[in-house]
Write a structure and sequence with these properties.
Chain B: This is STAS domain-containing protein. Chain B: It comes from Streptomyces rugosispiralis. Chain B: Pfam families: STAS (PF01740). The complex is a heterodimer of chains A (159) and B (136). Chain A has 4 helices and 5 strands, in the order βααββααββ. Chain A has 159 residues and is α+β, with helices and mostly antiparallel strands. Chain A has one domain: Histidine kinase-like ATPase, C-terminal domain (Heat Shock Protein 90, 2-Layer Sandwich). The longest helix of chain A is centred in the middle third of the chain and has 20 residues. Helices cover 38% and strands 15% of the residues of chain B. Chain B is globular. The chains are: A alpha+beta (159), B alpha/beta (136).
Chain lengths: 159, 136
């Protein structure tokens, strides 16, 4: 545990065994998003992943928040979906965390509108997609009417 | 995790102020149950102020933000002033980048300052045996 007075956002789960080897990235992992509880599971998994990759506290919060927005989008608008975590490295050796959020829902009819703050077809605030884009370094969407939606976002560590 | 919503943080009454908080695992049902319980208590107890401690929240996404904004509005319609206290700095940074300013929601650095804004003052410790003269 952190000393008193220090912020800690470390996950509360049991500590992972340390890897004495050359810090090989964890294998990609997928999580279903079918229920409210799944949203919590995704958040916990993403939090643990951000700690694993070595993000600072603010970046941890950014990535978990983006994951929460995208997973909720898949749950509310896509009728459920899947969140996959990947651990890429860029050519400079920086570590990153990539979230791939897919659903087989109706797709996004007007992507530009969906990326505009305040636009919502649901009960949220309309900041989910555009907000997630701002919170991450890389962002792409593949969608269309009847084609479902796939959002891929990546955040890189500073070094 | 199924069935009844998890009982959250208790709602305490200090005079005409209600003091409560939010836990990290806020889902839809918990949020609705929290809003309902808090508004019932405001009405039943004639509360004029509500302090909500959010220092346990590691993430505020747009769903939680909407809950806080709606809760504040409902309380205001009932005549109570809500102050949200103790937001973590990374959460504040992330909310701004998300584009959510929690318009209409009053905030305080910590519960103590929130309570002070709601009219509570930290009185100096009364001397031993000097309590006979107090109103209570």
């Amino acid at each position: 545990m952190a000393p008193p007075g220090e912020f800690t956002l470390a996950s509360r789960g049991p500590k992972r065994p340390s890897r004495p080897d050359g810090r090989r990235p964890p294998a990609p992992a997928s999580y279903p998003v079918r229920t409210e509880e799944d949203l919590l599971t995704v958040r916990h998994a993403v939090r643990a992943a951000t700690v694993e990759v070595g993000f600072g506290l603010v970046d941890q919060t950014r990535v978990v928040t983006a994951a929460s927005e995208l997973a909720r989008n898949a749950y509310v608008h896509g009728g459920g979906g899947t969140v996959t975590l990947e651990y890429p490295r860029d050519p400079r050796g920086r570590r990153g965390l990539r979230l791939i959020v897919t659903d087989e829902g109706p797709g996004i009819a007007d992507l530009d509108a969906a990326l505009t703050d305040g636009f919502t077809t649901g009960s949220g605030l309309g900041h989910g997609l555009g907000g997630a884009r701002r919170l991450m370094d890389e962002f792409s969407v593949r969608t269309g009417p009847g084609e479902g939606t796939a959002v891929v976002v990546t955040r890189w560590t500073v070094r | 995790m199924t069935g009844q919503p998890q009982p959250g943080v208790p709602i305490l009454r200090l005079g005409d102020v209600l003091v409560t908080g939010l836990l990290n695992e806020l889902d839809d049902r918990t949020a609705i149950a929290f809003t309902e319980e808090l508004t019932e208590r405001i009405s039943a107890e004639g509360a004029r102020g509500v302090l909500i401690d959010i220092s346990r929240l590691e993430v505020i996404d747009s769903f939680v933000a909407r809950t806080l904004m709606e809760l504040t509005t409902v309380a205001r319609l009932l005549g109570a002033r809500v102050i949200v206290a103790g937001m973590r700095p990374p959460v504040a940074i992330t909310l701004v980048e998300l584009g959510i300013e929690l318009v209409g929601v009053e905030t305080a650095l910590n519960p103590e300052q929130g309570l002070a804004a709601l009219g509570w003052r930290q009185a100096p410790q009364p001397l031993e045996g000097a309590r006979r003269g107090t109103a209570r």
